Amino acid sequence: MQDSFFPEVPSQIPFEGKDSKNPLSYKYYDAKKVVAGKTMAEHLRFSVAYWHTMKGSGKDIFGDDVFQRPWTKSNDMMERAKATLEAAFEFIQKLGIEYYCFHDRDIAPEGETFAQSCKNLETIVAQAKALQKSTGIKLLWGTANLFGNPIYSQGAGTNPDAHVFAHAAAQVKHALDATYELGGENYVFWGGREGYETLLNTNLKHELEQMARFMHLAVDYKNKIGFKGQFLIEPKPAEPSKHQYDFDSATSLAFLRQFDLIDHFKLNIEANHATLAGHTFEHELTVASAAGKLGSVDANRGDLLLGWDTDQFPTDLYSTTMAMIIILKQGGLGSGGLNFDAKPRRSSIDTIDLFHAHIGGIDTFARGLLIADQIIKEKALDNFIEERYSSYQSGIGADIMAGKVGLEDLDQWILKNGKPTMKSGRQEMLENVVNSYII
Ligand code: XLS
Ligand code: NI
Ligand code: NI
What we know:
Blueprint: E1 34-35, E2 38-39, H1 40-44, E3 46-49, H2 50-53, H3 77-95, E4 99-103, H4 104-107, H5 114-135, E5 138-143, H6 162-181, E6 186-189, E7 195-196, H7 204-225, E8 230-233, E9 243-244, H8 249-258, E10 265-270, H9 271-276, H10 281-290, E11 294-298, H11 317-329, E12 338-340, H12 352-377, H13 382-388, H14 395-401, H15 407-417, H16 427-438
Parallel strand pairs: 3-4, 3-12, 4-5, 5-6, 6-8, 8-10, 10-11, 11-12
Antiparallel strand pairs: 1-2, 7-9
Helix pairs in contact: 3-5, 5-6, 6-7, 10-11, 11-12
The chain binds D-xylose (XLS) and nickel (II) ion (2 copies).
């Protein structure tokens, strides 16, 4: 085994404060600093996404691999998987964060047969368990890759062929076993190809029922083995399918309610998926949080000029501030965290670029946390919002909300009280308030 995969990086990226010019230092993220009663590390629960960071090659549909990673030297796929895992733990340790996330097929290669794939996974899980123990790094969530293998080209749980459904279900069983074995704190379902290309060949109602059955099977198995992690659905409107069933937070919540799954799931909200759905990141977070279902976050950003999942590292302070306001107000993410489902650009070819990318994302969220805490503590927005809804606290408003009045009562009330006076929403003033905390 190689001594170090990142020899140019010190044993831990230090916190040096905002005036430091050292690119390999944190300007805002000070893991032990206490903010609103918890350390930054406890609030933010950062995680490295194995698929992008360890397995990403810079490949796109127009061109081949560009990144040469020192952990991909062996042509023996199991040897390569072992080296990749060593490198992952060194990387996470040097970043000084606590979590990682994976798909089964990220950490272990697919074998000739399903049985061989399961064996490969078990071998790597044993190695991961030992590395977790020696480093203290933990698994935020595991998941199954149900979109890469050609058999899933027409869906996994929503495939028209029950044989494929069974294969996907068996794969989830093993991915759940792996996540359980590694003490994973959550398990994610992202419906990569759970959608359709054309209604000409699709029975949408049947596919939704299949998907619900698939989820119920997973819930039953989770209970059977005693896995206590949180199940999460990660909404995304499209890509790779033209239309995906877990379109956005609202659609996913409706699906969970319709099929009696709501008590078993929360949502994992990804910034770039929100914008693909025509929403803002904060809209999706807020819808999930309002339902008590904001479980975790895939922290990244899209590009306003590109219409796909560009999975860039978050650098927009306005967006991370808004996200942290929502997260702080619901009392944190519980067992969830901020997983960098993000990749450096194809032109960022050096391994060190992975550090720059993560440091930027970590600092942007750390600074967002500090600003959000100030905004909340000083009630900079809350005072206005409370006042804006204050008419529901007493009088007719309180009666409306308590269900004490009907349409006839309201008709009488209006006849007596006349027209309402208009009040400004003061959007621009509030935008200036937020900017005054950010700038
Ligand atoms: C892809 C998704 C995926 C999930 C995990 O767009 O974000 O990476 O997070 O399957
Ligand atoms: Ni994601
Ligand atoms: Ni994504």
